[in-house]
Structure formats: structure tokens, C-alpha cells
Amino acid sequence: MSKKTSFRITLLAAVLILASAFYYLPYYVTKPGMAKELSPIIKVDGGYEEEGSFMLTTVRMGRANIYSYLVAKYSKYQEIFPVEAIRQENETDEDYTNRQLHMMDSSKTNAIEVAYKKAGLPVNYDYKGVYVLQVVPGMPADGKLVAGDHILKLDGKKFVSSSDFIEYVSSKKAGENVTLSIKRKSKPRDVTLPLKQFDKTSERAGIGIVPVDDKKIKVNPKVTVNSEEIGGPSAGLMFTLEIYNQLNKEDITKGYEIAGTGTISSDGTIGPIGGIEQKIIAADKAHADLFFAPNENGAKGSNFRAAVKTAKDIGTGMKIIPVDTFDDALKYLEKLKEKTS
Description:
One of its GO terms (molecular function) is ATP binding. The protein is an alpha+beta fold.
């Protein structure tokens, strides 16, 4: 083969490799992310310091190109998902990001409420309306509203929660109009939409959105949670533990590096999340001693069981603890002996 031909083949291969990096397939790839210490992220005014640390765990996710798809195909702890398994129908990347960030905001609010109430401190809310969390395809709001829209008024009237919003709309019939005063990217506008039946078997009608409360939690001492661009609700449990620990003189970390995952409801219930196997790997790389995993009341395919299997596969010495509620995690930590060096 001549040098000229060899050069052309090499150049062509380089062009193809470069092109593959910018050609996206209809898939997402997820892989182990990081375990991030929470004390620099969460600050309670006058809060107590800790010897150990609580850490949230993440999963890295991105659209698949040819290269990343092939790598994930042959990697044990990378997963491939079709676009429709991640994004909802007609949902753009921006809509998806907004939905994830609002879920994170709700997670932070729940975490603050649970931690402060457990610490015996009062919790109050200032309601400002609702956000659009999701738009239902084929319903009147489809194409008119987007995830992240802030709804301030309904037919000129203010309302204090998503339940009030739903109650008002439910009092209307299919074919009637409602006018929403919204704010999108700081720009106000009015949108008038007709109500439509959800299906032929029900008389219930609506505009086709999933609303979520826009509420500001009011607590004393003040707490700041700087989650930056981390989205989704899966850090709820670990947020709650960190906030509670800063509120209390006794350090419940007892010197351990403690990772974990799980959603948190306002009543302290811990819910399952995706990517538990990848989060175990992230926590192990960060040298965590303990990992709290959602137990799902002992269900056969629970996050806890998947976490135990992954921990065994990678040979980590990290202990996996099953939890169904915030109280479960606290009770475990209260019985834990101080870590010795």
C-alpha cells in the first residue's frame, strides 16, 4: 500500500470517528457518576459540624453517539435506554431538564420539612402558585404550555396550591375555557385554553398538565441547599440526614463516610430510584463506609437487593443498609458505634 493511500485511509477513519461523536442515536447512556459530600452544599445558620460526612450519589447520563453506545454495550455497569424511556412524549431536552430541576426543588423542600420537624422546629410555607411539571400529549395544554411554566393566576384569581388549582378546574365542564396568567423565563403572558375530557369513560375534564406547588418553605434557623445543576429527587434522603445533623449537637455520622440514595416524602417515607448499581460504584470509589438503600418494604426487586448484589460483584467492603423511612436511617445511626481510626 502506498503512503498516499495509507494517508487517505487514515484520514477517512479519523473523519468517521469525529463524525460519530456528533451523530446522536435515539438512546441515552447512563454510567456511574460521583459521590459528593453534602456539608459544602448544605448550610444551616449556626449549624453544628460533623466528623464524618454524608454524601449524595449521582448517575451520569447523556445522549448516545456511536462511540458511547458501543462502549456501553460491552460495559457491565453502563446502561442504554431508548429516548422514550427517559423523556416523555413530545418532551424536549429543555422540558426534561426543567422537570428534573423542579423534582430536585421538591426533594429539597421535603428534606427540610422532615429534618426540621424531627428536630422539633416549626415549619411554615409561603404559597405562590404552581409550576407545570408535565404536559399531557393530546390535551389542550399540549403546545401551549411547557414544563417549567409558572402559573400565577387562574381566571384572574390567585390560588395557594396545586390542590386548589385542580379543584377549580375540576368544577368546570368539557368545552369551557379557562385563562391562565403565566410567567415563562420571567416573561408574563395570558393563555386561554378549553377543557377536554381525559377519556371517553370519564366525565372528568382538564387542560392536561401535572401541576406542582410553587411554595417557599419558611424555617428558623435558615438553611441553604446549593444543588447547582443536579436534577431529580433521588438525593432526598441524604439531604434530610445532612440538614438534621447540622441542627443537632450530637454528630450522627460518628466519624463515618456515609453515602446513600432515595427519594423523601414529606412524611419521611423513602422511595426507590434508578441507577442504584451505578451509585454503589460511585460510593465505593469515594471510599464510603456505609450506603443507605431504599428497601421498598422488602420487595423482591428492591433497590436494596440490587445494591447488595452490586456490592458483592465489585468486592466492596462498604456496608449496605436497607431503609424504608427516615426514622429507619436515624435508628441505625443512633445504634452505630463511633468509628475508630
